Amino acid sequence: MREKITEILQQTSLSLGQSEIKAVRRKISKRTGCRVYNDYNIGISGAIGEADEEELYAKAEKNLSYKINYPVEATKNKKVSINLEECKLSDNDLFEAVEKILRKTAERHSNFTVNHKANLNTVELSIENEGQTKLFHRDKFAELGLLLKKRGSSDILDTAFSYVGRNVNSDKIIESVSELITAFDREEQLPGEALPIILHDKELTKIFQKDLNGKLFGNKASLFQEQLGMNVFNEKFSLKIATDPRESFMPLFDSEGTIPEEGLTWLIRDGKIIRPYADKRTAKMYDYENTGCAGGSYDSVPTLTAPHLEIIPGKQSLKSLLNGKNGILIMIAGGGDFTPDGIYASPVQLAYLTDGERLLGRLPHFTVKGSIYDIFGKDFIGLSSDKHFTVGNERLFVTNMEIKAL
Amino acid sequence: MYNFPDNFYSDVRIERIYHSTIRIEMGRLEEIKESVDLGAFIRLFDGSRWYYSSTTALDSIDKELQNLASLAKANKEINNHPVVKRMQRNICKQTIYQENSVEKVNLQDKLKLLESYSKQAINDSEINHWNIVYSDKNLKKNFYSSIGSDIEFDTQIAGVRLAFRFGSGANSFTEMWCKADVCYEKITDLHTECQKRIDQAKDFYKNAETIPGGNYTVVLSPMAAGIFAHESFGHKSEADFMVGDEEMLKEWQLGKRVGSEKLSIVDDGNAFGSGYVPFDDEGTKAAKTVLIENGILRGRLHSSVTASSLNEDVTGNARGMNFEYEPIVRMTCTYIEAGSITKEQLISEIKYGILVDTVKHGSGMSTFTLAPSMAYLIENGQISKPVRFSVITGNVMKTLDQIDGVSDKLELLSFVGGGCGKMEQFPLSVGFGGPFVRVKEINVQ
């Protein structure tokens, strides 16, 4: 059976430097991948740019001679078309919005410069095969990465604003950037008492991306090997594979064309480890459920790839989770890592003190440490029900961890 | 040659990239592929703004140039613009990897080579999970500019990367062995070295003890020293973050002491390996740029734009990840220069400290981190036992000043399967390395 993967990216990218638009880049890129399935083997090929499909299929058939075992069926009779192109922004709209953000920020905060990128992306991904499968995803969204650098600072960036969305509200962004800068300039001392730690939900879930991998489980090499089916974490802690294209800006289907049932996307539920994540081959090899986690580039054999994960939010806002206290919001913690037994430690290069609604000031550098079993166990307070535009338009997760001044 | 529009500066970079990848996991062939990508990146400058386009339709380059010109404002004085004045006009052909191109090696032979390395993992029953990857790339670039540059050159890298994991649950350990070189033949007979790393990792897995956090004297291996040089200081030497900041320039004034007199750091695109870049993506010839000499700040890394802004010379560090990206200031091969004492002497002078041998990753702003994979305790001048901890961290400038010993042998390292990330452009091939470097005090967590 033949299968074709097509990826198209149309992008306008503005390079920002010293609070000015320094460059404009336009590109349209097309990538085509061809797969041939035969006798439970797979052959692959691919090309960038306009490609002759027959040539690509011929290469994929030749690639079959290496006998890459693929002991599962290609997805058949599945038809899904999702078009999220509700974004009406034109290149000129993006240009004007970004110029306004840069101008207003420079007026308000002449001691800071804005650098990096603003992109407007239109993405298309399709998988079509001779088994009557036709999957299509199209989206259009803006990405802003604004690195805010204080004049005279020895760092490449001092604080940052990031946004991905299907519209650009320049006034709201200006206010958020202003809040980040104003709070950055207000230096606070490390609190004498232990305060809740607030993080982006993706900061620490990377250990689950690594150790809930079906292949690691299947080979008895996971940190959580002996804990499948056990209540290991706080009963308020649940973790799912993020599948909503509106939230994730990713297609609903994986690179094998799998769209997992909702029930299969739960990896941890009410503190209990339910299942590792898997793609078709991993599921078959180790007798797991296929959770739709095949990834890889357009011209690759589909392979098990760590999915985007989301902690299930509770009903309380960040303010409510803090329960009348202030919290320590970790914005940049680069270079941290886990020990094999699940102890996380990291220096924190940027953290703000917050009351759950406003940023109150910037804290000095410190280190943070905690066991994964405590962070998501006895110390887990919850994931906020509300999203916070100023810190990436994300829900924030609250826990307790040990901190020490650097 | 192309029809470069009048009254603008413009250039065209064409890349032909051959690359192949083979992956075996737990004894199963997972992937084997090779392909050739061809594309161009086109730039046009009107004196106030740059306009970029990327295309795979090479017959449309003249049209793309005209399209970009239609967005810009004509500037009759463009060739006198300080940015354009810094552009080098080079006419050169420097292709050295066409005769021995990895493209000429049969894919089946590459597979056999990878299988020979994979046997070392297959035959070790204590390894619970492993995967091994062969990858290579032969890149030929042509660069043409409106000021007359006409350059053709190539680069090449081939390598093997084995990742393996012992144990499970809380008692597990993951390590990696990676070797890359500019010629295929140079990576075909490294099985002993690979086996040595597996044996070392097994010993570490079985015997490593946790040590308490605190301040230790630390010796960095060439790998750790290279990552430290790249992450902690190399990125700070990229001049784009200094442009337009007078206070910053005072802080980073050339001639200022920024580290111990034992320390010298350079960046050199002429060094063969994964950081070999004989010409950058503005057509500037590679240079050996001394960043720190005996603790004194001597230079920084530039594109034509940053060199013009800071009134300094271009250094050959304007690099784009591939033909879809514009050049920005990037490192090439960054390393700490060798000192005068032996590694043994360096360690023998330590009463109680740590040797960081291999590293999982590193990062650096004003505070840097290195996450060690294998590290060893040093007691009374001898390496005594393997030890585990999460990260070492410290203030970059203080740490540069704390370097009190540098060994006499420089080791430059090359890699496949990863690279340097900056902004949206990841991964870019770079090289790094150094000798063994001793730091009086670093915080261990």
Terminal residue distance of chain B: 58 Å
Mean of the pLDDT scores of chain B?
95
Structural class of chain A: alpha+beta
Largest sheet of chain B, described in full?
7 strands, mixed
| Terminal CA distance of chain A | 59 Å
Shape of chain B: globular
User: How helix-rich are the residues of chain A, as a percent range?
Assistant: 10-25%
The number of distinct β-strands of chain A equals 24
The percentage of residues in β strands of chain A lies in: 35-45%
Structural class of chain B: alpha+beta
Q: Which parts of chain B are unreliable, with pLDDT below 50 for 5 consecutive residues or more?
A: none
Total number of helical segments of chain B? 9
Key features of this structure:
heterodimer; A: 406 residues; alpha+beta; eight-stranded mixed beta sheet; 9 helices; 24 strands; 18% helix; 39% strand; globular; B: 445 residues; seven-stranded mixed beta sheet; six-stranded mixed beta sheet; 20% helix
If you had to describe this structure to a student in words, what would you say it looks like?
The complex is a heterodimer of chains A (406) and B (445). Chain A is built from 9 helices and 24 strands. With 406 residues, chain A is an alpha+beta fold. In chain A, the strands form 5 sheets. In chain A, strands 1, 2, 3, 4, 5, 6, 7 and 8 form an 8-stranded mixed β-sheet that branches. In chain A, strand 19 and strand 20 form a beta hairpin. In chain A, helix 2 runs parallel beside helix 3. Chain A is globular and about 65 Å long. The model of chain A has no long low-confidence stretch (mean pLDDT 95). Chain B has 445 residues and is an alpha+beta fold. The chains are: A alpha+beta (406), B alpha+beta (445). At the A-B interface, strand 2, strand 3, strand 4, strand 6 and strand 17 of A face strand 2, strand 3, strand 6, strand 7 and helix 6 of B. Strand 2 of chain A pairs parallel with strand 3 of chain B.
